[in-house]
TrEMBL record:
PANTHER family per UniProt: TRIOSEPHOSPHATE ISOMERASE
Pathway: Carbohydrate biosynthesis; gluconeogenesis; Carbohydrate degradation; glycolysis; D-glyceraldehyde 3-phosphate from glycerone phosphate: step 1/1
Chief location category: cytoplasm
Enzyme category, top tier: isomerase
Its biological purpose: Involved in the gluconeogenesis. Catalyzes stereospecifically the conversion of dihydroxyacetone phosphate (DHAP) to D-glyceraldehyde-3-phosphate (G3P).
GO molecular function: triose-phosphate isomerase activity
Keyword match Protease: no
CDD domains reported for this sequence: TIM (cd00311)
Protein name, as recorded: Triosephosphate isomerase
Length: 260
């Protein structure tokens, strides 16, 4: 019997400097602790900008907070003359567990392709990080190809070409639902998650098919329950609402074990 522990992930995007970052993590940890949050029942991770990671790591270690740290991106290269790039090795050393890869904002504004994503997934595994592979369709793709085709294809592309697969998480984020206030319905999220899981199982085996699949796109404390109620969605990737400690803690409150 496999348990998929829900993951509540907060992607801060390009918000908050390192001082604001430590204030938010402190408030979040206190709020979760006051609410009796059980981290073994729902992992809570934050993804601050690169410049905040060291300060947040120091705070988490000093205060023994159970909030987990992740990065928003990494380089496909290990080290060397790649100005502006950040190696997965540096992120591991800073205590990051997760790294977001292929977020639609990276695909859209930084021309990241499926090949880039695949190479970054390999780099994450090489440096002991768990990639959270972001997939999702634009409004145009939704209208022309339906909801599952693009996220399924992006998932297969990201996981293909590796000798063996390490641990990974898939975050299904319809691009039309990010930061827009438009939300996929729980049934839609469930059905796409199901299609992604079936494709992973078919292409990469039953064990990989047990990986966690998250939903993201305008998730708030008042709509998260619907997504987590389905047995297919194992957590959420939250943008805007993760910048507010109480709102994000409110999202994490909807924790549960999913027993398969
Ligand atoms: O990474 C998070 C997603 O882009 C969702 O952002 P949002 O919750 O602000 O819509």
């Amino acid at each position: 019997m496999t348990k998929r522990i829900p993951l509540i992930a907060g992607n801060w995007k390009m918000n908050l400097d390192h001082l604001q970052a430590i204030a938010l993590v402190q408030k979040l940890s206190w709020t979760l602790s006051d609410a009796g949050h059980e981290y073994s029942s729902a992992e809570v991770a934050v993804f601050p900008p690169f410049t905040d990671l060291r300060s947040v790591q120091t705070l988490i270690e000093a205060e023994k907070f159970e909030v987990v740290l992740g990065a928003q991106d990494l380089s496909k290269h290990d080290s060397g003359a790649f100005t502006g790039e950040i190696s997965g090795a540096f992120l591991s050393k800073l205590g990051c567990k997760f790294v977001l890869i292929g977020h639609s904002e990276r695909r859209q504004y930084h021309s990241e392709t499926d090949e880039t994503v695949q190479a970054k997934v390999a780099a994450a595994w090489k440096h002991g990080l768990v990639p959270i592979i972001c997939v999702g369709e634009t409004l145009e793709e939704l209208e022309t190809q339906g909801q599952a085709a693009v996220p399924v294809a992006q998932t297969i592309a990201a996981l293909s070409g590796h000798e063996t697969l390490g641990e990974f998480v898939i975050a299904y984020e319809p691009v039309w639902a990010i930061g827009t206030g438009k939300v996929a319905t729980p049934l839609e999220a469930e059905s796409v998650a199901k299609a992604i899981r079936a494709a992973i199982t078919e292409n990469f085996g039953a064990e990989s098919g047990q990986s966690r699949i998250l939903y993201g796109g305008s998730v708030k404390a008042n709509n998260v329950a619907g997504f987590l109620a389905s047995g297919e969605v194992d957590g959420v990737l939250v943008g805007g609402a993760s910048l507010d400690a109480e709102e994000f803690a409110g999202i994490a409150r909807f924790q549960k074990h999913i027993v398969l």
